[in-house]
Every structure is written in structure tokens, then in C-alpha cells.
């Protein structure tokens, strides 16, 4: 269990607050709840009890989107707040927002990652109880997870009785997920189609390609445009992933990425851009696998259509500075750097609180 080991390392950096806990018990769990939203009930969702689901809730049959928040989130927090209203406005769908807020509270980062195992198991149980009795069709199901929620979506694949149809990872969390087993990290084996939006690969999000289709947005600049003057440019960039996805649901311009054919662990410095383009976000299609790059505007609407990316040389500031030769080495270095920054910030805020 490398993940446990890493978690312990992290714990020695950050003395967890007394209120942090690793959840015990099984599923269903009262700290992992599921809320069904339709266009008509968007302000008054129905709580779904995984052990007795009313099939009438899912009539008529429609696509079902399961939205999974990240660390410090809940069902009325990112990415729910960006994506849910847009889906309900523009598409005839059901949205289920998962809520496991009590298990991922700040500053309990280590516990949040350990709690992800139970969260994933409980979500797997819900999906089994929807799909096995035929309440919904497995091909109507699409999981969208942000940050830690993207890793939860990947882990959920370990608990379902069928292959998940579609997972979208919105800037999947990097810290403590870099050297863990594939079983714990979202990857292309977790669903028939896994698409990823990378917006903060230097800090909070994973740098390496991990799905069938990986979209790198504004990669050249490190941070997302418009985030430069934010008090935390990294967090602003990370949060752009759900914002871009929400906009993609009804975007006229479209987020068109340009395919890069030779982005791989040994040649991440250079990329010959080809003519192949593909749409990122809601219209992403399993027909377009590979690694794509695109640029956006700094303010909404962000989508820049076929502007694509002007990258011909991916030796960015990030890569130049570190001097490493392999993407795995770089990812580990970035993870350590980020954990150190977080640990320092936490120490500082504790000192302030004590003063
Ligand atoms: C959802 O309801 C709003 C009005 O409340 C309506 O404008 C919109 O078209 C509806 N969306 C769909 C997909 O039916
Ligand atoms: C749910 O979370 C609370 C803290 O918010 C904790 O005290 C409780 O034990 C948890 N319950 C279960 C069933 O895990
Ligand atoms: C589905 O998976 C769960 C958990 O992995 C298992 O307990 C259950 O027996 C499986 N059910 C079927 C119908 O295969
Ligand atoms: C993917 O390609 C197949 C075969 O060419 C085509 O039938 C299908 O419509 C395409 N799917 C999408 C979503 O474009």
C-alpha cells in the first residue's frame, strides 16, 4: 500500500487536526449521500437511498450524469455549481450529485484520500443498484469527477459489476496519487471512454496523460490566463477545469484541441502538431483518442474555437526549470514541491491561529 506510506509521510509534514478521522463501517454510509436533480427539481433534489431506489425516479429514460466533488467540496460546491445548472438547462438529463463533504474537510487531506476508498465503494453500490436491476442502462451513465473526485470515479470502477461507460476527469488530483497503484488512480482501463481535462498539471493536477483522450489547456503558460493575479493562481487554474466543462455543454465556438502525436514519456519536450482536431468537454467523443492541446480566452466565454494552440515546442518554463529528463521524474518532483508548499502554508496558518 504505497498510498498509505505516502499518506504517513504527508502526515509527518502536517500534524493533522484533532478532528480529522478515517471513516469506519461500510455502505450505505450516512456521510456519503446521493441527490437526484431534474430540471423540475433543481432546487429541491430527491435523496436517493441506494438500498431502495424508486425506479419511477428515472422515468422517462435519459442520460444520467454523476457529479463527484473533490477535497473540501460538497454537493453545492465545485464542480456541481458550474456543471449541474448548465446540464439541466441545456440537456434532457438526470444529474446525481454525490455528497461526501464530512469525509474530506480541510485540513484533513491524508484522511480524505483514505476515505476515498469507502466513498468509491458506496458510489459503486449505488451504480450496481441502478444498473443491475435495469433501472438505468449502463450506457446512459457518465461520471464526472473533479480533482480528488476524478480519482474517486476511477476507484469506483473497482466496485461495479460491469464496465463503466464514460468517465470525465477534471484536472485529476496529483498529490499522493503519483506513485500509487493504477487501482487507486483514474486510468483508461476504468471506463469504455475516459477523457481528461488538464488545467493545473504543475501543482494540483496530474501531468501525465491518463485517459483515452487527454486535453491540455493553455499548457504553455503554466497557469490559466486570467488567473495570474488571483491570490492563488494554482487554485484558480485548477478550478478552470469544471468551468471549461460547463461552458462546453452549449458552446458555440467549441474547445477544439490539436492533436500532438509524439507526447510520450521520453519526448515530452517537443511535439509536432498535426492537423487533427477534436472537441474537448461535453462533445468529446471516443472516436478521438490521443493527446490534445488548446488555448482559451482569459474570460468567459473561454472557448476559442479552432484557434487551437500555437505550441510547437513544449519546453515550457516548467520543464526548463526542473532539468529532469523523464515525465515520471518530473511528476514526482512536482508532487513533492506541491506537498511542501501546502505543508508550509498550513504551518503558517496554525502559527497565526495560535498567536
Ligand atoms: C429547464 O427549465 C427551464 C425553465 O425552468 C427551461 O428554460 C429549459 O429549457 C429547461 N431545460 C430543458 C433541457 O428542458
Ligand atoms: C460521519 O461523519 C461524522 C463527522 O462529521 C462522524 O462523527 C461520524 O462518525 C461519521 N459517521 C459514519 C457512519 O461514518
Ligand atoms: C456486484 O458487485 C458487488 C461488489 O463488488 C458484489 O458484492 C455483488 O455480488 C455483485 N453482484 C452481481 C450481481 O454480480
Ligand atoms: C464514431 O465513429 C463511428 C464510426 O465511424 C460513427 O458511426 C459514430 O457516429 C462516431 N461517433 C461520434 C460520437 O462521432
Automatic annotation (TrEMBL):
This is Pancreatic triacylglycerol lipase-like isoform X1. The keyword Secreted applies. The keyword Signal applies. It comes from the Eukaryota. One of its GO terms (cellular component) is extracellular space. One of its GO terms (biological process) is lipid catabolic process. SUPFAM superfamilies: alpha/beta-Hydrolases (SSF53474). The lineage of its organism: Eukaryota, Metazoa, Ecdysozoa, Arthropoda, Hexapoda. GO terms for molecular function: lipase activity; serine hydrolase activity. PANTHER family: IP13478P-RELATED, LIPASE. Keywords: Secreted, Signal. Residues 1-16 form the signal peptide. Residues 29-302 form the Lipase domain. It is found in: Secreted. The gene is LOC117564363. Belongs to the AB hydrolase superfamily. Lipase family.
Amino acid at each position: 500500500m504505497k498510498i498509505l506510506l505516502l499518506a504517513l509521510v504527508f502526515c509527518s509534514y502536517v500534524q493533522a487536526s484533532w478532528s480529522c478521522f478515517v471513516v469506519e463501517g461500510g455502505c450505505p454510509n450516512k456521510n456519503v449521500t446521493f441527490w437526484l436533480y431534474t430540471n423540475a427539481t433543481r432546487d429541491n433534489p430527491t435523496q436517493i437511498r441506494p438500498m431502495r431506489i424508486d425506479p419511477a425516479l428515472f422515468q422517462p429514460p435519459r442520460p444520467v450524469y454523476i457529479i463527484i466533488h473533490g477535497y473540501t467540496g460538497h454537493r453545492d460546491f465545485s464542480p456541481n455549481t458550474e456543471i449541474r445548472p448548465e446540464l439541466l438547462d441545456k440537456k434532457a438529463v438526470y444529474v446525481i450529485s454525490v455528497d461526501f463533504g464530512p469525509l474530506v474537510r480541510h485540513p484533513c487531506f491524508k484522511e480524505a484520500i483514505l476515505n476515498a476508498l469507502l466513498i468509491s465503494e458506496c458510489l459503486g453500490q449505488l451504480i450496481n443498484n441502478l444498473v443491475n436491476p435495469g433501472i438505468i442502462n449502463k450506457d446512459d451513465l457518465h461520471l464526472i469527477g473533479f480533482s480528488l473526485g476524478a480519482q474517486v470515479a476511477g476507484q469506483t470502477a473497482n466496485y461495479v459489476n460491469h464496465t463503466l461507460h464514460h468517465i470525465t476527469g477534471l484536472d485529476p488530483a496529483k498529490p499522493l496519487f503519483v506513485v500509487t497503484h493504477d487501482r487507486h488512480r483514474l486510468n483508461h482501463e476504468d471506463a469504455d471512454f475516459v477523457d481528461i481535462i488538464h488545467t493545473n498539471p504543475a501543482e494540483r493536477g496530474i501531468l501525465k496523460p491518463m485517459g483515452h483522450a487527454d486535453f491540455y489547456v493553455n499548457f504553455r503558460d503554466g497557469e490559466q490566463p486570467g488567473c495570474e493575479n488571483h491570490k492563488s493562481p494554482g487554485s484558480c487554474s485548477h478550478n478552470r477545469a469544471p468551468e471549461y466543462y460547463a461552458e462546453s455543454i452549449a458552446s458555440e465556438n467549441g474547445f477544439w484541441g490539436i492533436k500532438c502525436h509524439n507526447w510520450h514519456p521520453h519526448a515530452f519536450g517537443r511535439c509536432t502538431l498535426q492537423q487533427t482536431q477534436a472537441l474537448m468537454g461535453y462533445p468529446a467523443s471516443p472516436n478521438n483518442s490521443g493527446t490534445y492541446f488548446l488555448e482559451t480566452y482569459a474570460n468567459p466565454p473561454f472557448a476559442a474555437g479552432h484557434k487551437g494552440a500555437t505550441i510547437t515546442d513544449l519546453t515550457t518554463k516548467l520543464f526548463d526549470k526542473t532539468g529532469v529528463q523523464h515525465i515520471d521524474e518530473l511528476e514526482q518532483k512536482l508532487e513533492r514541491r506541491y506537498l511542501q508548499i501546502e505543508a508550509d502554508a498550513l504551518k503558517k496558518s496554525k502559527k497565526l491561529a495560535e498567536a
